[in-house]
């Protein structure tokens, strides 16, 4: 007896399934891997700057006779890169919605790689004076533009190739490229410590050249997004995606902006500022802090994927709410644990801050942000919301340092919890895009296709593409 199928709330889903199979495209795994590797490389480049800013740049590119002022200037330079990321997100988003996701992926990686290698070759303050800081700012701006364009293209490609029921998992895999990049960046700076002050910060940036070659090779082999190709074929590409998304979806941009701040600004306090804080207070050596960050990043690779996959089971919003609640509670205990000066407890603090607080949010964002926007403005909308928060998070280490100078560690601790509260409020007012109703609807469509003699899974498993 054939089971009676409930009517679909959105009959268009059946039409979509014809060109974007429920089980995803034949390239889904290759795209996810390529996007993840690209994200890893760009994170290595971008986060490497943050590590160097916290540990070296205050005396390398600025006057060495006032290290604390140098730290402020160093973090200000770090923030400039974040400040221009929205512009990179806008440019990359518009291009991604007009000419395709793939060209943006390749172009952003090339630009990022060139800028990063240049940092490793810059002259120091002792060599050229104030020009050292000026050159650093110029290259940092280029980095920020490239990184701003990167995320939207990588996530959108993965999301639009992924199985309907596993979009959280697949975008989580792409997001996991960021902790891999963090791990590699910290490892590079850790092994370069014995090289001395002159080369310890240069070598990690120069090594980026090798990673760029590998990344470009992989990204050139992936196919364009099926949803973009469908929009192009139907002539439904947006003529002005920025104008449309600002006019029609500004509320979602604002919500995603606040959701993102909790994750990225929280990281800026708990990792970037914390590295500088531990160094200034002489609570632990550089090897200890870099090792702690590496352990947290290694765990974060699996944590990010896990949290992304978990959203496929219970929805996007519940996981985000859990992560932000933990952030709110963790602010003051985080500093109390670090202040003990115990290497083991410092490692524990980094693991909780990064692998739990940050990764529980990052693992959700890929799928949730994409689902908030229409396909023809999705890259622009998601990228704009994602990168706008970078303006706040980029200057957070500077803000945290100023608070530390005036109030001690309690200021940055409260700031961290405040970012968690902002994320919690945003999560509560943002619609669930993969709740029980959506999951049941896709399940009903699967049953309907099977009843018509179409096996959804067979659409991709018969492919010889290696997926």
UniProtKB/TrEMBL annotation:
Subcellular location: Cell membrane
Signal peptide (residue range): none
Keyword Transport: yes
Topology term for the membrane: Multi-pass membrane protein
Domain (Major facilitator superfamily (MFS) profile) ranges: 31-438
PROSITE patterns recorded: MFS
UniProt keyword list: Cell membrane, Membrane, Transmembrane, Transmembrane helix, Transport
Membrane-spanning segments: 37-57, 72-96, 103-122, 128-148, 169-193, 199-218, 257-278, 290-310, 319-338, 344-364, 384-403, 409-429
InterPro entries registered for this protein in UniProt: MFS, MFS_dom, MFS_trans_sf
Listed name of the protein: MFS transporter
Source species taxonomy: Bacteria, Bacillati, Actinomycetota, Actinomycetes, Pseudonocardiales
């Amino acid at each position: 007896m054939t089971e009676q199928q409930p009517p679909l709330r959105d009959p268009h889903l059946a039409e979509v399934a014809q060109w974007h199979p429920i089980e995803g495209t034949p390239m889904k795994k290759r795209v996810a891997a390529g996007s993840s590797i690209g994200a890893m490389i760009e994170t290595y480049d971008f986060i490497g700057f943050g590590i160097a800013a916290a540990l070296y740049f205050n005396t390398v590119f600025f006057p060495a006779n006032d290290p604390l002022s140098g730290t402020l200037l160093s973090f200000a330079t770090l923030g400039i890169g974040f400040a221009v990321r929205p512009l990179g997100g806008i440019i990359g988003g518009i291009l991604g919605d007009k000419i395709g996701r793939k060209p943006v992926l390749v172009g952003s990686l090339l630009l990022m790689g060139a800028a990063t290698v240049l940092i490793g070759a810059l002259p120091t303050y002792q060599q050229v004076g104030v020009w050292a800081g000026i050159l650093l700012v110029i290259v940092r701006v280029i980095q920020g533009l490239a990184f701003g364009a990167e995320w939207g293209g990588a996530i959108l490609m993965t999301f639009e190739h992924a199985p309907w029921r596993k979009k959280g998992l697949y975008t989580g895999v792409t997001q996991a490229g960021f902790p891999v990049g963090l791990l590699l960046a910290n490892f590079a700076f850790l092994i370069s410590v014995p090289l001395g002050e002159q080369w310890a910060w240069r070598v990690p940036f120069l090594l980026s050249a090798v990673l760029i070659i590998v990344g470009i090779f992989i990204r050139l082999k992936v196919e364009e997004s099926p949803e973009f190709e469908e929009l192009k074929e139907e002539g439904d590409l947006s003529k002005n995606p920025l104008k449309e998304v600002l006019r029609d979806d500004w509320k979602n941009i604002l919500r995603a902006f606040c959701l993102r701040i909790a994750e990225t600004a929280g990281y800026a306090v708990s990792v970037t500022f914390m590295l500088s804080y531990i160094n200034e207070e002489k609570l632990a050596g550089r090897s200890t802090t870099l090792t702690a960050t590496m352990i947290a990043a290694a765990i974060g690779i699996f944590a990010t994927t896990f949290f992304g996959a978990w959203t496929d089971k219970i929805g996007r919003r519940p996981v985000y709410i859990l992560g932000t609640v933990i952030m709110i509670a963790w602010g003051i205990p985080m500093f109390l644990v670090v202040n003990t000066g115990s290497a083991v407890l410092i490692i524990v603090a980094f693991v909780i801050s990064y692998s739990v607080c940050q990764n529980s949010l990052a693992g959700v964002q890929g799928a949730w942000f994409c689902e908030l926007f229409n396909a023809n403005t999705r890259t622009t909308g998601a990228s704009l919301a994602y990168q706008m928060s970078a303006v706040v998070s980029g200057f957070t280490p500077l803000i945290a340092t100023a608070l530390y100078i005036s109030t001690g560690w309690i200021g940055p601790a409260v700031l961290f919890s405040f970012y968690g509260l902002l994320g919690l409020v945003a999560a509560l007012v943002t619609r669930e895009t993969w709740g029980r109703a959506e999951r049941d609807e896709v399940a009903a469509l699967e049953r309907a296709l099977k009843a018509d003699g179409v096996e959804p899974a067979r659409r991709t498993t018969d492919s010889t593409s290696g997926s």
